[in-house]
Amino acid sequence: MNTQLAGWVAYALTAQTFSWSGDDVDVCALLADAGWTPQRIHDHARQTLTDEQPWPHAVNADVVAGLGAARFLAALGQARQTLGVWTLEVEPPTRRTALDADERRLMAEVPPHHVA
Predict the structure, then answer these.
(1) CA–CA–CA angle 4, 82, 66 (5° rounding)
(2) What is the maximal distance between C-alpha atoms in the chain?
(3) For the chain, which residues make up each domain, given as ranges?
(4) Most exposed: 51, 63, 72, 89, by fewest CB within 10 Å?
(5) pLDDT tens sequence across 43-101
(6) Is 60 exposed, middle or buried (CB count within 10 Å of its CB: 0-12, 13-18, 19+)?
Protein backbone atom coordinates (compact mmCIF):
# COMPACT_ATOMS: atom_id res chain seq x y z
CA MET A 1 0.00 0.00 0.00
CA ASN A 2 1.15 3.56 -0.40
CA THR A 3 2.84 5.33 2.48
CA GLN A 4 -0.04 7.71 3.20
CA LEU A 5 -2.53 4.87 3.52
CA ALA A 6 -0.06 2.81 5.57
CA GLY A 7 0.50 5.75 7.90
CA TRP A 8 -3.21 6.13 8.62
CA VAL A 9 -3.70 2.39 9.07
CA ALA A 10 -0.82 2.42 11.56
CA TYR A 11 -2.39 5.39 13.35
CA ALA A 12 -5.74 3.57 13.62
CA LEU A 13 -3.97 0.62 15.22
CA THR A 14 -1.55 2.46 17.53
CA ALA A 15 -2.63 6.13 17.87
CA GLN A 16 0.89 7.12 16.87
CA THR A 17 1.95 8.84 13.70
CA PHE A 18 4.59 7.30 11.49
CA SER A 19 6.34 8.58 8.42
CA TRP A 20 7.71 6.10 5.96
CA SER A 21 9.18 6.44 2.52
CA GLY A 22 8.64 4.34 -0.55
CA ASP A 23 5.86 3.66 -2.96
CA ASP A 24 4.70 0.26 -1.79
CA VAL A 25 5.06 -0.53 1.93
CA ASP A 26 4.06 -3.40 4.19
CA VAL A 27 2.46 -1.66 7.18
CA CYS A 28 2.68 -4.77 9.39
CA ALA A 29 6.42 -5.17 8.78
CA LEU A 30 7.03 -1.46 9.32
CA LEU A 31 5.05 -1.51 12.57
CA ALA A 32 7.09 -4.50 13.76
CA ASP A 33 10.29 -2.63 12.89
CA ALA A 34 9.01 0.27 15.02
CA GLY A 35 8.46 -2.07 17.97
CA TRP A 36 4.73 -2.61 17.45
CA THR A 37 4.53 -6.40 17.51
CA PRO A 38 1.14 -8.10 17.14
CA GLN A 39 1.13 -8.75 20.89
CA ARG A 40 1.86 -5.11 21.68
CA ILE A 41 -0.94 -3.98 19.35
CA HIS A 42 -3.27 -6.50 20.98
CA ASP A 43 -2.33 -5.26 24.47
CA HIS A 44 -2.76 -1.64 23.36
CA ALA A 45 -6.20 -2.44 21.92
CA ARG A 46 -7.33 -4.22 25.10
CA GLN A 47 -6.11 -1.34 27.27
CA THR A 48 -7.80 1.23 25.03
CA LEU A 49 -11.09 -0.66 25.23
CA THR A 50 -10.69 -1.11 28.99
CA ASP A 51 -10.31 2.67 29.21
CA GLU A 52 -13.65 2.88 27.38
CA GLN A 53 -12.08 4.45 24.30
CA PRO A 54 -12.74 3.30 20.75
CA TRP A 55 -10.32 0.98 19.00
CA PRO A 56 -9.25 1.01 16.23
CA HIS A 57 -8.59 4.68 16.77
CA ALA A 58 -10.69 7.13 14.80
CA VAL A 59 -9.15 8.68 11.73
CA ASN A 60 -10.35 12.08 10.55
CA ALA A 61 -13.28 11.66 8.15
CA ASP A 62 -11.68 14.05 5.64
CA VAL A 63 -8.57 11.88 5.55
CA VAL A 64 -10.63 8.73 5.05
CA ALA A 65 -12.65 10.42 2.31
CA GLY A 66 -9.44 11.50 0.59
CA LEU A 67 -8.02 7.99 0.73
CA GLY A 68 -11.31 6.37 -0.15
CA ALA A 69 -13.33 4.92 2.73
CA ALA A 70 -13.60 1.44 1.24
CA ARG A 71 -9.90 1.36 0.44
CA PHE A 72 -8.97 2.53 3.96
CA LEU A 73 -11.29 0.05 5.69
CA ALA A 74 -10.07 -2.80 3.50
CA ALA A 75 -6.43 -1.95 4.29
CA LEU A 76 -7.21 -1.67 8.00
CA GLY A 77 -9.08 -4.98 7.95
CA GLN A 78 -6.25 -6.72 6.13
CA ALA A 79 -3.69 -5.36 8.62
CA ARG A 80 -5.82 -6.48 11.57
CA GLN A 81 -6.21 -9.94 10.09
CA THR A 82 -2.49 -10.23 9.30
CA LEU A 83 -1.60 -9.09 12.83
CA GLY A 84 -4.12 -11.43 14.43
CA VAL A 85 -6.14 -8.66 16.07
CA TRP A 86 -9.28 -9.08 13.99
CA THR A 87 -11.13 -10.16 17.11
CA LEU A 88 -9.66 -9.56 20.51
CA GLU A 89 -11.42 -12.39 22.28
CA VAL A 90 -12.45 -15.75 20.93
CA GLU A 91 -15.51 -17.11 22.66
CA PRO A 92 -16.67 -20.70 22.45
CA PRO A 93 -19.91 -21.46 20.64
CA THR A 94 -23.04 -21.30 22.72
CA ARG A 95 -23.99 -24.54 24.42
CA ARG A 96 -27.71 -23.78 24.33
CA THR A 97 -29.54 -26.25 22.10
CA ALA A 98 -33.20 -25.94 23.11
CA LEU A 99 -35.35 -23.23 21.58
CA ASP A 100 -37.32 -20.97 23.88
CA ALA A 101 -41.08 -20.43 23.43
CA ASP A 102 -40.70 -17.40 21.13
CA GLU A 103 -38.19 -19.23 18.92
CA ARG A 104 -40.50 -22.27 18.66
CA ARG A 105 -43.40 -19.99 17.69
CA LEU A 106 -41.31 -18.32 14.98
CA MET A 107 -40.15 -21.67 13.62
CA ALA A 108 -43.77 -22.86 13.43
CA GLU A 109 -44.89 -19.83 11.43
CA VAL A 110 -45.10 -20.31 7.68
CA PRO A 111 -45.85 -17.81 4.93
CA PRO A 112 -49.50 -17.70 3.79
CA HIS A 113 -48.76 -19.50 0.51
CA HIS A 114 -47.64 -22.59 2.48
CA VAL A 115 -50.94 -22.98 4.28
CA ALA A 116 -53.19 -25.61 2.70
Answers:
(1) 25
(2) 70
(3) 3-83
(4) 89
(5) 999 999 889 999 999 999 998 888 899 999 999 999 999 998 887 666 677 787 888 89
(6) exposed
